[in-house]
Design brief:
28% of the residues lie in helices and 24% in strands. The protein is of the alpha/beta class. It has two domains: 338 residues, ANL, N-terminal domain (Rossmann fold); 88 residues, 2-Layer Sandwich (GMP Synthetase, Chain A, domain 3). The protein has an eleven-stranded mixed beta sheet with strand order 4-3-5-6-7-8-9-13-12-11-10. A four-stranded mixed beta sheet has the order 18-17-16-19, covered by helices on one side. Strands 1-2 form a two-stranded antiparallel sheet.
Length: 437
């Protein structure tokens, strides 16, 4: 199928569906997948029966609220039980053509299986996101993501299916990746936001000016929140002279489930594949669109391992109003991970709150570390930053942080050792949560 390269939509009919029609399609897919899960996945049969619900109870989209939640613990507890794929799987192993695994950063890694149809639809969605940010068949694309079991690795196939020339970079050392960027002059690259910033910094230190010596026009970032923080996005854009677009994915579902458009007002989520709910962090109470809570996803078309009401652990909101770009699929706004959020003086604090301040000031390298600790049975936190090599005004830096930490520690450039070619660890929790009173 040939596409008009001047059309900003990959699938205009799907991407601009009136809300009523989109929700009608969602309901039909929801009814089918809930029944499929009940009939074929041992866990869902047992769980639905215990909750006193059955697939026939789904008459409207809101009826999904009658069904029980699952989470990462559910995945770990059922993985490998009864079969290699476990009790959440709804197809036999011979129907599975690909598995990825989670990073295991919050516990035992969990696998994510795909049938061929699941995988093909996953890549069709990736092509849609690439097209949405302006990639076209005449682009050269470097996929600088981990290929080792990581669900984002295969996303490069979506770029190939679009027609772009693809360079499977993977996790090349920085020096080698810079050689690729200078020699092959690609126009688009995908990596993590912290690494995009660090790579630009390394390029400058090695005598390469990303704006003049390289040809990168667009940078896709994912895996960390930075791409949705305006200050971080601008810091990366200033180094590269390129547009930065944030993507969002889950190993539990597929590579990129949501992506920015040119409006950069949240990330359009593939609502033809995912039903989104937002719930109160503590009570599980359903919140209205626009309210901030934990995002809960139900997969509508993934058959290898359906996820019915999966609590993602991500805090954010969804906006279901039509975007200025013309797309009607909802936009998610991610604030952070429930695991990373901490409370100080009854206020919820996310690392992204601190990153937004750190990244917008000159004289600071942009690297930071947060240490959470206790004092007098109260949560406190410290922020550690790096001053630029030519900056000696550390007192002024402390004053400009403005987020009221218990203390600010200023290191020389490179003193934090937080730079990573993958996800950077930014939070260290030093609290002892067991009180002996």
């Amino acid at each position: 199928m040939s596409r008009d390269i001047n059309n900003k939509f990959w699938d205009e009919e799907l991407e601009t569906l009136p809300r009523e029609e989109l929700e009608k399609r969602q309901l039909a897919d929801l009814q089918e997948i809930v029944k499929f899960a009940y009939d074929n996945a041992p866990y869902y049969k047992r769980s639905f029966d215990e909750a006193g619900v059955k697939p026939e109870d789904i008459k409207t989209l809101k009826d999904i609220q009658k069904f029980p939640f699952i989470n990462k613990t559910t995945q770990r507890d059922t993985q490998g039980v009864g079969s290699f794929l476990g009790e959440l799987a709804a197809v036999p192993e011979e129907d599975v053509v690909f598995i990825s695994t989670s990073s295991g950063s919050t516990g035992v890694p969990t696998m994510s299986p795909f049938t061929k149809k699941d995988f093909d639809e996953f890549q069709e969605t990736e092509s849609r996101w690439f097209w949405q940010i302006g990639m076209r068949p005449n682009d050269r694309y470097v996929h600088a993501l981990n290929f080792s079991l990581y669900v984002g690795g295969p996303d490069v196939i979506g770029a190939q299916n679009l027609g772009a020339l693809c360079i499977w970079g993977g996790t090349l050392p920085s020096e080698r990746l810079l050689f690729v960027l200078k020699t092959y002059q690609p126009t688009v690259i995908w990596t993590s936001p912290s690494y995009a910033w660090q790579l630009g910094e390394k390029a400058l230190k090695s005598g390469i000016d990303p704006k003049k010596d390289l040809n990168i026009k667009k940078i896709i970032v994912a895996g960390e929140l930075g791409g949705s923080i305006e200050a971080t996005r601008k810091a990366i854009e200033d180094i590269w002279g390129a547009e930065v677009y944030d993507f969002y994915g889950l190993s539990d579902i597929f590579g990129a489930c949501a992506a920015m458009c040119e409006a950069k007002d949240g990330l359009h989520i593939a609502e033809n594949h995912i039903l989104v709910e937002t719930v109160d962090l503590h009570t599980g109470e359903i919140l209205e669109p626009g309210q901030v809570g934990e995002l809960v996803f139900t997969t509508l078309r993934k058959h290898a391992r359906p996820l019915i009401r999966f609590r993602t652990g991500d805090i954010g909101r969804i906006d279901t109003t039509k975007c200025s770009c013309g797309r009607t699929h909802g936009r998610i706004h991610i604030l952070g991970r429930k695991d990373d959020m901490f409370i100080v003086s009854a206020v919820n604090v996310f690392p992204s709150d601190i990153e937004a301040v750190v990244r917008e000031h000159k004289g600071i390298t942009g690297e930071y570390l947060i240490r959470i600790f206790e004092k007098d049975f109260t949560n406190k936190y410290a922020v550690e930053i790096e001053k630029s090599a030519d900056n000696t005004k550390t007192a002024a830096l402390k004053a400009r942080i403005g987020v009221k930490p218990a203390r600010v520690v200023v290191h020389p450039d490179g003193g934090l050792n937080t730079r990573s070619e993958h996800k950077s660890k930014r939070v260290i929790d030093e609290r002892n949560l067991e009180y002996n009173i």
